[in-house]
Amino acid sequence: MAAQAGNWAVSAERLIKRYPNGHLALEGVDLQIRRGEVFGLLGQNGAGKTTLLKILCGLLQPCRGRLRILDMEAKNGFHHIKRCLGVVSQDINLDQPLTVLGNLQRHCSYFSIPRRQASARIAEWLHILQLEHAAHQSIHQLSGGNKRKVMIARAFITEPQLLILDEPTNALDPSVRSVVWDRICAFADQGGTVLLSTHHFQEAEHLCGRVELIHQGRLQTLDSAESLESRFHALTANEAA
User: Fold this and answer.
1) CA dist 25 to 119, 124, 192, Å?
2) Helix (H/G/I), strand (E/B), else coil: 144
3) Sign of dihedral through CA atoms 74, 79, 83, 87?
4) Which of 60, 102, 122, 226 shows the smallest number of beta carbons within 10 Å?
5) CA dihedral defined by 109, 114, 117, 123, rounded to 10 degrees?
6) Cα separation of 125 and 127, whole Å?
7) Strand 72-73 and strand 210-215: pairing?
8) How confident is the model at residue 223 (pLDDT cuts 50, 70, 90)?
9) Separation CA 40–CA 224 (nearest Å)
């Protein structure tokens, strides 16, 4: 933690989250993500990963701890922070009655992106993700993979400072997955920061400079250089034993 505060896109200290039913989801989580970094987060179901991501997106409040995102204190409200985020959640949270184009236009409008600029960005991402043919289809008409593509486009078109991606390439075919990987790398090369949650070890090894495991509400560092899968299973097995 010797780096200056301005070097961190995310700085969380001793985050604790206990739900009303008594379940302790996060047990004093410390997390620092540098600006321009692609940071990987692995975790089994029930490990606390979803809780942590929801806190970082402003959808949940921790019971204790301090959180700064992009040099802004989370406790002062997430309004300004959210305008700097691009989020792909695990759940599909698109406006079902609207078309693909309508969803992306509404999102750009919410972020006050000028109409001409929004149109150019939308057209670019429809092309990148091979969605041009589906632009005027309602969301409920789309396959799972195409819904995921719309969510990815929605996250990128606002040109955020921080991307929070929860299983972004689920249901994508390999060629589109490769395109998304390239775009994530390009985003980081241009100074953007990425928090990537994934179950695909190859994806984490390919994209992430650092990877941490969340298990039983705590974070542990994993070396990204060699066999994340074997280290992941060893640590989770050891702690479960």
Assistant:
1) 41, 40, 29
2) helix
3) positive
4) 226
5) 30
6) 5
7) unpaired
8) low
9) 9
The whole-angstrom separation of Cα 117 and Cα 110 is 14
- Rounded distance, CA 49 to CA 82, Å? 19
- Both structure tokens of 9: 């896109």
**Distance between CA atoms of residues 218 and 203, nearest Å:** 22
**131-190 per-position pLDDT tens digit:** 999 999 999 999 999 999 999 999 999 999 999 999 999 999 999 999 999 999 999 999
105: helix, strand or coil: helix
Main-chain phi, psi angles of 158, to 5 degrees: -85, 0
Q: Which amino acid is at 172?
A: L
Reading the block at residue 44, the tokens are 């089994």
Beta-strand pair 218-222/24-34: unpaired
At position 174, the amino acid (one-letter code) is: P
Amino acid present at 129:
L
- Please spell the DSSP secondary structure of 184-200, one letter per residue: HHHHHHTT-EEEEE-S-
